[in-house]
Fold these 2 entries.
Entry 1:
Amino acid sequence: MTEIFGVPTQALFGQLLIGLINGSFYALLSLGLAVIFGLLNIINFTHGAQYMLGAFCAYFLLHKLGLGYWWSLAIAPLAVGAFGVLIERTMLKQLYKLDHLYGLLLTFGLALIIQGIFRHEFGSSGLPYPIPQELTGSRNLGFMFLPNYRAWVIVASLVVCIGTWFVIERTKLGAYLRAATENPALVQAFGINVPRMITLTYGFGVALAALAGVMAAPIYQVSPQMGADLIIVVFAVVVIGGMGSIMGSVLTGFGLGIVEGLTKVFYPEASNTVIFIIMAIVLLIKPAGLFGTQK
Amino acid sequence: MRHQKIALLVMLAIFAAAPLVVYPVFMMKVMCFALFACAFNLLIGFGGLLSFGHAMFLGTAGYITAHAAKEWGFPPELAILLGTGAAFLLGVITGLLAIRRQGIYFAMITLALAQMIYFFYLQAPFTHGEDGIQSVPRGKLFGFIDLGNIMTMYYTVLVIFFAGFLLIWRTIHSPFGQVLKAIRENEQRAISLGYDTTHYKFQAYVLSATLAGLAGATKAIVFQLASLTDVHWTMSGEVVLMTLLGGLGTIFGPVVGALIIITMENYLAQLGAWVTIVQGAIFVVCVLTFRRGVVGEIAHFLKKPL
Amino acid sequence: MKVKQLAAAVALALGTTAAVQAQVSDGVIKIGVLNDQSSLYADLAGQGSVVAARMAVEDFGAAKKGMKVEIITADHQNKADLGSQVARQWYDVDKVDVIVDVPNSGVALAVNQITRDKGKAFLVSGAASADLTGKACSPNTIHWTYDTWMLANGTGNAIVKTGGDTWFFLTADYAFGHALERDTEAVVQKAGGKVLGKVRHPLNTQDFSSFLLQAQSSKAKIIGLANAGGDTTNSIKQAAEFGIVKGGQNLAGLLVFLTDVHGLGLQTAQGLILTETFYWDQNEQTRAFAKRFQQANRGIYPTMVHAGVYSSVLHYLKAVEALKGDEGAKVIAKMKELPTEDPLFGKGRVRQDGRKIHPAYLLEVKKPSESKYAYDYYKVRATIPADQAFRPEKDGGCSLVK
């Protein structure tokens, strides 16, 4: 058995692969957050709770309506996204003229409410959600058994991330959106309904969070607390990637997953801290983030 | 100013008489958190900097004090001093790293640093992780005042709280405090007037960190326990809540905010998750419609600063 | 003559209860059930423990004997600071005389200290750390139900004897996990086995994939799960996902409860070997208890923790009655003096170090085909007699043992 730095290669590849899987979630979540912050300058602390809502939506769809995983992938993001639109219309709109920090505090409060309600109803131990039939089982890769579902997670998030990036950076719709956030008055003068674009964009970012929630449900258990500690890590990812940059967040998300996986092999005690150390360093050297541009 | 002095005397009277009617341990908890919130308010209310990692000072001081009192046998006054000193050091180090950034970036970097500290304490053997440092002895203050007696402990905490509060009072009413307020209002103008704003902000940050540490150190001796809860980011969120509810930038706001939040937590504790829901609701309501906070609204009504 | 005797008897009875009332603090015996009601230990203890306590008070006949007993409850959320604050407030303000249950060894150790400082009583049913009758032993505390030493010796020994001689530990990173790992490691090594590695995970972990991978690469025959509740069920489920058992390794659930097996389902849990001190389907008395219990507890059957709460509260009330008072250390001493007997654990006793002794059962989870009715989950593999099930009194390092 070959060894790299005293660790058997099998273990190394195994952990890297797991890191990639975790990285897919980080990427998917930070994508939504980056869209919302990068384009709307809203710090959406509710993102973790919305991720949790997506997972619960999948759970309810299955247990109350008998609708399985594939249905949930479509319905949950729409449902939670609509909820996001509601939040934006009723509450966030009023805070645009104020300091950004109020937006952060509002969304933080909303997250507490949502998580509190679900914890009250469901406790915090987590509800089981089955892996869809088509994706059960695992493939023996030699150095580890890779569960098929987790392989699907990697593929699906890559597709979604690249797709979103493409829409925002390379299509006309995306161009309007980017223009609207840079200079809303001018774009509105061109006849484009800017407030509606902003609302829909927020809804889209939230829908991405919900999508990540549905994909997480079969492996991470559906629990009211699932988003709470994850949100801090996702913030770190977005900050490192550059708060305005979609591609930056996606790359950092995957990258973080891999770095975490490596840390777990060589120095597991630091695996939780490594992201924050990187974030602190990046903020000191290049506060706009690795791929971001200073606004 | 005179009405502020009256308010100060009223507050002192209330806290001095409270243990006769209210469970003293509860009031001690209120005072520790009130001090914590006041320290936090110094930074955001008067300095304009939202730190989302203030729990790291509370918790660090708590752990150091608990360890010193339990494992090294320090008398309580030295243990508290040591804990506060540790918070001071941490304040200096993190301040040097964070203070050059503004607004959101400042909040994010304080959050990142606080998370690092949290995970460090999670792993460090001396904190005993999830169990925390338990059975911290109260000891004898100055070698002869037995803090095991609940009333003695209470009045000691009152003295500490009052001393911390007075320090903040003096700071706010001093020329230093005026410059801070100027920086909060319009930093560019303050710079153009020749003030080294970074330096002022740094000093405010370190002072805030040290007093937060004092609160944490005292808390560890009162409750004879130091645990991970004190360094978790939800604790940082709580102090923001207390200050926001009480009134950002008011002197007495944080005390009122702390009192309300701790009372609410106590009464709703039986209902578990309701505490979180109510906290979230208070955040939302405060941000949308009640931005001045309780004391801020009172001050606005009286047309005098509080 | 008979009337006079009857009158005398009535007067004596009334007088006795009056005497008991007079010396019981504030005339009320207040029992505080403190446990996790919303997190990973909510099912194995939680509200069920409150039900068990109430049943004990009923069966004791407190009302008929004229003793006023009140039960209050709180959720400690697995936080030592919250647990100790509640305990303090209960003792100082709410006049609670005895705290029962407290799963989560970290919280239990904190409450243990506070109870001792305030001179009250503490009956631990839910927590596992054997330190409660070892170096943290106290004249105010009795450790009921089970502990890490018993688990290690029951399950650990049995597995090593059947060939599982190389181990890798997946441990919950707090007092309980460390104690269980330490005690099991000692058993494994004494039986001639080897521990190839260990990894610690935070309490309430959702994703065990990287830990399981490390366990896999260690190539140990047995992966010992030194955790409980939700952490154990998650590890077992994810181990299945990663083909751990297919790859030739076996899982040893060092602390598994009836409710965990129920949550996992027999398909996943079949073949698991575990040690408990109570199983509802043992005899007529336990079955009768279970029937009453599940009616009051939303259909959930009793775990050994619930049984322990019932048994400890029952014995406590007997001791208070005999002592005619409820001062903490004195009641505990009386409880050690009186032999115990209840429909759930049978006959037993409490040792000087505060350890309650009763037999332990080595159980195996049935295959789905072998289960005939609700909660029919276990086969009894062996019975470990009471005097062998727990750590010898002299080995604990308890200062109360002379």
Note: Chain A has a mean pLDDT of 85.
Entry 2:
Amino acid sequence: MTLDSANKGQKIEIINIPDANIRVQAIRLGIYEGSKLICSEKLPAGPVILQNRMQEIAIGRNLARKIKVKLV
Amino acid sequence: MDCHNPITTIDVPENAKKIVLAGNPNVGKSVFFNYLTGLYVDVSNFPGTTIDISSGKFNNDVIMDTPGVYGVSSFNDEERVARDIILYADVILNIVDAVHLERDLFLTQQIIDMGKPVVVALNMMDDVKRNGLKIDIDLLSKELGVEVIPTTAIKGEGLDKVKEAISRARTGNRIKEIKEIIDKVKDNVDTESEALLLAEEDENIIARHNVKDFKGEREHIYKLRRNRVDKIVDKIITETNKDASFKIKLGRMMLKPITGIPILLAALYIMYKAIGVFVAQTVVGITEEIIMGEYYYNFIMNTVGKFFNDTTLIGQLLIGEFGLITMVPIYIFGLLLPLVVGFYFFLSLMEDSGYLPRIAALVDRALTTLGLNGRAIIPMILGFGCVTMATITTRLLGSKREKFIATMLLGLAIPCSAQLGVIMGLIAPLGLKAFIIYSATIFAVFVITGTLLNKLMPGESTDLLIDLPPLRLPKINNVLKKTYLKSVMFLKEATPLFIVGGLLITVLQYTGLLDSIASTLEPFTVGFLKLHPKVSQAFIMGIVRRDFGAAGLNDLASQGLLNGPQLIVSLVAITLFVPCIAAIMVIFKERSWQESALIYIGSFIISFLTAGILAQFIV
């Protein structure tokens, strides 16, 4: 599945981020292939918010469609 | 060794050590900086950016602040500036947000991998308890191999210990595999720190050292570092409870449209009340009309005015209607400065509280229809302060396409605070209906232009990926300091243009050229826009600066040459066409000349077309 179909409150593991440039920026914020995060919020048709402890990152819906994840 | 160091703006004595403060955005670096340096602080602007770097003395050494960054690299201007300062530092004081260790320690470990001597200040310790976390500080220190000092800088706790520890800064535990990679590429550059950035494929370091055919290992290194940081964090943090604090709840409310939009509207309403009503009317009423308009003006007329006859050219240039020592200082200090200060005060509040990135997430969906992502809200909001500076910040957008769209929209439909102030003053007496017609027209042009550009331009825009920092109560000292720095920057930029504008208009007027331009344009101004022929004079003024033009309209309105609807039409025209000369110059610098010319000419066409169409309906 892709990140945009994750629901609020679900815990997910990142499987694949296709874009290399996004990959290196995301890894600094703690998002990388294999990291486990909680989808803490989902704005209607807008960004998905991922949370790791106190850290929160907003990911645009289009980008979320390209990120492969699985539920854990 | 410093032959590649581009930091020449900061003066460092020969034997002094460079102590550099580094950390992620909003971790409280400036509190440390102020504590360590005391009163004597230099601020220097980094050429070609909107970034100011503070430096000061600490015993015999020099302390430098850096912009907040998530890592040392070249993804944006802040990072490039921070990178160059960190790269040539002797000692790093790394400020870390204790509740965001998985994010912040990435930078810490990167600095350690550079081989720099480091002291870590573990800041916001009060938040740690509040959020039910426990951190094993001794273990963190052991894992990193450098001293870690717990602090709550905002309350002054631990600052003295940090000050003492700086002399004990040491190199930490480097990641073994990364060290091996550094050793492999070291011969290409001068220092180990540069070698690390070379291995991390930093384009500027590669270019500066003229390294050819280099294959870096950025992703591999980042992954090693990420794994190491996550391992450390897992070892040292225990969570005692999971109740979300009020700040986290408020942060969520700012994101969700159902609560976020009302919060945003409320924030904008407060800003409008404070800047548009209190500053633009009450404060400016005192500064422009009484202090500058009466006391200052009378003083000039009674001193300088005695020596010059204002019917001569020199008299007109100095003390005439657009005189260098009459109109220029009266408008700049009486009218613009209070507005600009008010605006930057609010902007700094939004920045320091962590609200800005939440607005970006909230509006992301809406901005994607204009071919932008939520991040573009930052230059847009900044544009209400000063379009010139905002144009420079469009660099933080991810693609050429977004930069063009954002620059076009900024130049076209975002009035800057100075101009907004004059507009507010002109529109307020006309009533709510006039205000709605004006804002709706500008907003429609903004949306239509953005949507069309998004449809017509080739390529794809980048997506939002933004860190939502914790909400924090901004520190008033920092907010005031930022407001001050940005206002000074504005004065430096606006004053020369007002002088040029004043000179130009006076000469045009004195030689009668202004009247002949006005009469040439008459069929257009009178026929299509349905305005008084003299309005073209204000339009010409507006080419120099939009607010200068708006001030010209102010003049005409007070002479009774424009009625209500005509005033709205002229304001729409003047808002939409070209920003000031400074903005034009920056646009030409930032974008290619073809794109810039398109923006420049396009804004003229759109502005007069819109004003003309509006005139057919309302005048």
Note: Chain A has one domain: 3-71.
